[in-house]
Amino acid sequence: MKRISALKQLWPFCRPYLGRFILAFIFLCGSSAATLAIPLAFKNLIDLGFVAHAATQGAAASAGGAINGYFLALFGIAVFLAVFTALRFYMVSWLGERVTADLRAGIYARMLAQSPQFFETTQTGEVLSRLTTDTTLVQTVIGTSISMGLRNFFLFIGGIIMLVVTNPHAALIIVIIVALVVLPLVLFGRRVRKLSRDSQDRVADSSAVAGEVLNAMPVVQAYTNEAHEDRRFSATVESGFATAVRRTRARAFLTALIITIVFGGAVYGLWLGARAVADGSMTSGLLAQSILYVGLVAGSVGALAEVAGDVMRAAGATERLLELYTAEPHISDPPQPLPLAPAAGGVRLVFENVLFSYPSRPQTNSLDDISFTVAPGETVAIVGPSGAGKTTLFQLLLRFYDPKGGRILLDGVDLRAGSLAQLRGRIALVPQDTVVFSADALENIRYGRPGASDDEVKTAAKAAQAHDFLERLPEGYKTFLGERGVRLSGGQRQRIAIARAILKNAPLLLLDEATSALDTESEQAVQRAIESAARDRTTLIIAHRLSTVKSADRIIVLEDGKIVESGSPAQLLDRGGLYARLASLQVTGGTDGRAAA
User: Fold this and answer.
1) Which of 323, 327, 356, 318 is nearest to 114 (CA)?
2) In what order do the strands lie in the sheet with 405-410?
3) What are phi and psi of 368, to 5 degrees?
4) Confidence of residue 136 (pLDDT cuts 50, 70, 90)
5) pLDDT tens column, 157-179
6) What is the mean pLDDT of residues 312-334?
7) For an engineered disulfide with 448, which of 258, 489, 504, 544 has Cβ 3.0 to 4.6 Å away?
């Protein structure tokens, strides 16, 4: 029952709509009462109408009038049943849709608050599967199964009560049947729940594989691995199918067993009733009433078995959803965050003995005893081979991770003591892997500052040397750029990202290989724009092309997570150290002008 109790944790999502749940319950009670009244109407109809006979014509006319009255009453009950059933259906369907929408939105909001560490172990495809498949199962339970379960429970209890009042022998038989039904429910219920969870996990696996491959189609096709990926996806689908078949087989066996027990007992009870009518100890109407009540009770038991299966699946889905909803972010605000003072002319950064290793590689230090200071308005370049720790510095500045040792100060405030929103609001980032959203160019740039006007967006685009090519697009700035910006070249996407950062106008600018995808002419133009934008803010630049950092006030050279050199470009060239070797390689090796990265 532990997994079934997981459904209780949906209560916070249901509580705001308690009034509607009460209305749905009232409509449910009304429709159940109408259903239970139908057998009584049939009894009177048979005993007082069809079976009754009169010796005189007047008596016959009276019997005909009684029949008309009973038929009208039966029709009235049917209308009442139809209205209350329709109202119940509407109300519970609305509740199912509303609660599921709130659940999806709540989980999505929790995912937005997670740090990158969370996604080191959780695939985005699995998260999407839970947001779609699992929430659909929860919607089915709230919008259908619980209502049907309660309705059939009421019919079962009501039917038993009416049988006790009118036919105690039949009621005793039904009670024995229920006792026999509970045993297989207990025995097979746990297995069905486990198989339901396994089936949902397999669906999530296939979604994760599909999401990963579809986002990397150019690479898949370039290496002609379509057949391999097709086989890999098919294997996950077949695994999910096999698990689903096992779950369905268990549920089918459970359903067949319950129906056999229930209807076997019902047939036995009807056989006894038919004999009672034959020897005159029961009227035909009472037998008909008993048949209907037994049918209602038997049908409700079978329906409850089906509902139990749906509830078990939903319980497994709820567990998976709540794992996401209750996941605590590894990075969060302190209880009382210190305010960051408004920055004018850039911010002051201080790294004090910073030590850091990624959670997935705890034994390897990505940064080892890093200490340096960046003055307000200063432009500092970070260079070094791949794996030196350059991008890690940016991730710590954005508080995607926290240092394992030491601290980072922004205007005198330890990043861990301040507000995440305030910190990230002071930073504009141009990442190496450019992100372009499925929207037009105007909205993609405006992502840097959602309240910016169209003119401000275009001014930022001009500064990033993006205005000309955007104007040449079929619909100009209103041109849809495609998923992940597939309609643009790499250099165009990067200029969109630079324009977005310029528009944000934050006091700290982080450029992670911001000109890597640009040709020489565009690089020079964008470099001038960046230099202009950096005049009134603190700027950190990660660069592999050393030509892009010649105008930096200072260069910090990293190797194996440690600072090995620091100074101006001219000073570093004169020292003949790592920076000088990298610069020499760019002059004498390769035409792309990149350092060993």
Assistant:
1) 327
2) 367-374, 349-356, 405-410, 413-414
3) -130, 105
4) confident
5) 888 887 777 777 766 776 776 66
6) 79
7) 504
CB-based burial of residue 195 (10 Å sphere; 0-12 exposed, 13-18 middle, 19+ buried)? buried
Mean pLDDT of 531-544: 78
**In contact, 494 and 445? CB cutoff 8 Å:** no
**Residue 132, SS3?**
helix
Q: Provide the 10 A C-beta neighbour count for residue 81.
A: 18
Rounded CA separation 452/446 (Å): 6
Report the distance separating Cα 536 and Cα 346, nearest Å.
Answer: 6
Burial (CB count <10 Å: 0-12, 13-18, 19+), residue 451: exposed
The band of 592, judged by pLDDT with boundaries at 50, 70 and 90, is very low
Could you tell me which residues come within 8 angstroms of residue 594 by beta carbon, excluding any fewer than 6 positions away?
A: 544, 545, 586
Instruction: Please count the other Cβ atoms lying within 10 Å of the Cβ belonging to residue 82.
Output: 12
Looking at every residue in the chain, the average pLDDT score rounds to 78
Give the span between the Cα atoms of 552 and 380, in whole angstroms.
6
Are residues 373 and 320 in contact, defined by beta-carbon separation less than 8 angstroms?
no
**More confident: 392 or 161:** 392
Average pLDDT for residues 555-576, to the nearest whole number? 87
Residue 571's contacts (CB-CB under 8 Å, 6 or more residues apart) are none
CA distances to 205, 209, 212, 221 from 229, rounded to whole Å, are 14, 9, 10, 10
Most confident of 230-239, 329-338, 339-348, 397-406: 397-406
Per the CB < 8 A criterion, the answer to whether 36 and 296 are in contact is yes
Distance CA(197)–CA(316), nearest Å, equals 5
Two tokens, residue 34: 């109408």
What residue ranges define each of the domains in the chain, with the CATH number in brackets? 15-325 (1.20.1560.10), 371-403+411-426+508-597 (3.40.50.300), 436-505 (3.40.50.300)
Burial of 345 (0-12, 13-18, 19+ CB in 10 A): exposed
d(CA 243, CA 199): 5
Residue 343 has pLDDT above 80, yes or no: no
d(CA 302, CA 258): 7
552: left (phi over 0), alpha (psi -120 to 50) or beta: beta
Residues 6+ apart with CB under 8 A from 319: 3, 6, 197
488 DSSP β-pair partners: none
Q: Quote the pLDDT of residue 188.
A: 64
Question: Residue 539: beta bridge partners?
Answer: 379, 509
Length of the chain: 597
Residue 145 one-letter amino acid: S
